[in-house]
Amino acid sequence: MNRRKKVILVNILRQMDELGNYPPLSTAFLKAYCDKHESINRNYDISLFTSVCHEYNREELLQEIKKSKPCVIGLSCYMWNLESYLEALPDIRNAAKDALIITGGPEAHPGLLELSAEMDAIAIGEGEYILKEILESALNGDTWKNARGIAYRRGGRIVVNPPQEPLANLDDIPSPYKTGILPATPIMHIEYSRGCTNSCSYCVAAKAPYRHMSIERIEEEILFCIENRSDIGLFAGSYLNFKNFGVQTLRLIKKYRDMGHDITISDILTIDSNNDDDEFFGLLDEVVPDKSKFVLGLGIQSLCPAALKLNRRVTKIESVRNIVAKWRFQYFIMIILGLPGDNIFTVARAIAEAAKLDPLYLQMFNLAVIPNTHLFEKKEKFNIDADPMPPHELRSVMELSEKDIKKMRLMAKSLSMEFSPPAPIEK
Fold first, then answer.
1. 3-class secondary-structure state, position 308
2. Dihedral angle at the C-alpha atoms of 420, 421, 423, 427, nearest 10 degrees?
3. Does a cis peptide bond (omega within 30 degrees of 0) precede residue 391?
4. What sign does the dihedral 129-135-136-142 (CA atoms) show?
5. Residue ranges with strand state E in 41-118
6. By CB neighbour count within 10 A (0-12 exposed, 13-18 middle, 19+ buried), where does 256 fall?
7. How far apart are CA 387 and CA 86, in angstroms?
8. What is the pLDDT of residues 275-328, one digit of tens each?
9. Which residues of 142-152 are buried (b: 16+ CB within 10 A; e: fewer)?
10. Strand 72-76 to 121-123 pairing
11. Does residue 427 have a pLDDT over 60?
12. What are the beta bridge partners of residue 193?
């Protein structure tokens, strides 16, 4: 009898304030995609280790590693969990001396290899193809070092292999819920798209092409939610109201509501605030009758023409005003502090305009200069100084000195006190 080799995929999730935690979709998708390939499923037993930042216990992770003796350990890396991984890696290596330790995720980049001698490789970009290729290489007698989309050490230097293509068809990933990888929960979060329709300089998603699941796949997920009496969560995706996709999705939900099924959308939905299409919002209004369980996220980010141009961002404030004036949802409005081209006065104007909309919550984010973004690549051009460690917060940029940045953040903090954090959304 063939004894399958163990693979552990680790994901330390962020604490999402009062809104609760989200499922480990990234590692669940990796497992679902690899498990569907017969040769991998026959030879590898892929398991997930999931925790939350405020509950994470390193000893539990180490015990799981010692118990399973994995040949591959994958770390799903975000700015909120990298420090935890770096602290644990020496112990992880001691617990699994011969395992391949590979770090991936939206913020994974070759420079991480300089932070830890225990990391063997970095997966750059979407991980499904990369992990599949690495696992198959061992079965074929090849080396994982030939896999596309990875960076690793050779001698005293870092080697970056040719990039791996993004997943062409998101439907190729089996549903982690329907396969039993993730349990049914009161809100079932569906990653309906990847990439982005915009090309904002500061966003990781902007470097990947926009793709969404087929309407047929979305319908399967809706039916599964109905069977399990779960609400739909559409937090994981980029702009449901892109072209006709969102309208088609909402029509499906409405169809099943009209048939008598108690199905709705809960939690946070971030949309393209420049698209005030009445059909989309009219349908959304119908399928979300209880507005207390739902928050609509609108990104203003900046209203300064120079900042918008430099950061390849489009913000149509009239569209935002139209949406808020016409549709009575709870709103979560976002502004970024410190974008190249902005200054204290332009940021103050953006905050004032956002405050006029009377959102449930006005979130002012400190600019993070994240690796794998266009902004990170243009640091010298914009004279950017940022913390090299997560959360990569901006220190100074162009005409904004470090002192100016501190003043701007203090101003934003005092203004934001007018708005309470969002009330807990009932689950």
1. helix
2. 170
3. yes
4. positive
5. 44-52, 72-76, 100-104
6. middle
7. 16
8. 999 999 999 999 999 999 899 999 999 999 999 999 999 999 999 999 999 999
9. eebeebebbbb
10. unpaired
11. no
12. 212
Q: Counting every residue, how long is the chain?
A: 427
* Domain boundaries defined on the chain: 5-160, 184-416
* CATH number of the domain located at residue range(s) 184-416 in this protein: 3.80.30.20
Cβ contacts of 396 within 8 Å, gap of 6 or more: 383, 384, 385, 402, 404, 405
Structure token digits, residue 65? 């590693």
> What CATH superfamily classification does 5-160 receive?
Cobalamin-binding domain (3.40.50.280)
Residue 330 main-chain phi, psi, to 5 deg: -85, 135
pLDDT of the residue at 418: 64
Q: List Cβ neighbours of 49 (8 Å cut-off, separation of 6 or more).
A: 8, 9, 10, 11, 61, 64
Pull the structure tokens for residue 256.
């099943």
Residue 164's Cβ-count burial label (10 Å; 0-12, 13-18, 19+) is buried
Tokens of 212: 């969404």
The amino acid present at 323, given as its one-letter code, is I
The strand pairing partners of 279, in sequence order, are: none
Contacts of 278 (CB under 8 A, 6+ apart): 326
Nearest to 149 by CA among 177, 134, 133, 130: 130
Q: Label residue 21 by pLDDT band (50, 70, 90).
A: low
Q: Give tens-digit pLDDT for 363-414.
A: 888 999 998 899 999 999 999 999 988 889 999 999 899 999 998 888 877 7
What letter represents residue 180's amino acid?
Answer: G
Non-local (6+) Cβ contacts of 132 within 8 A are 33, 34, 37, 40
Distance CA 423, CA 128 (A): 36
C-alpha span between 148 and 160 (Å, rounded): 9
Look at residue 75 in the predicted model and tell me its pLDDT. 97
Average pLDDT over residues 80-85: 91
Amino acid letter for position 416: S
Question: Given this model, what pLDDT does residue 2 score?
Answer: 64
Structure tokens at 374: 């266009």
pLDDT value for 235: 77
Is residue 299 a contact partner of residue 326, using CB atoms and an 8 Å limit?
no
Task: Enumerate the H helices of 314-359 as residue ranges.
Answer: 317-326, 344-356
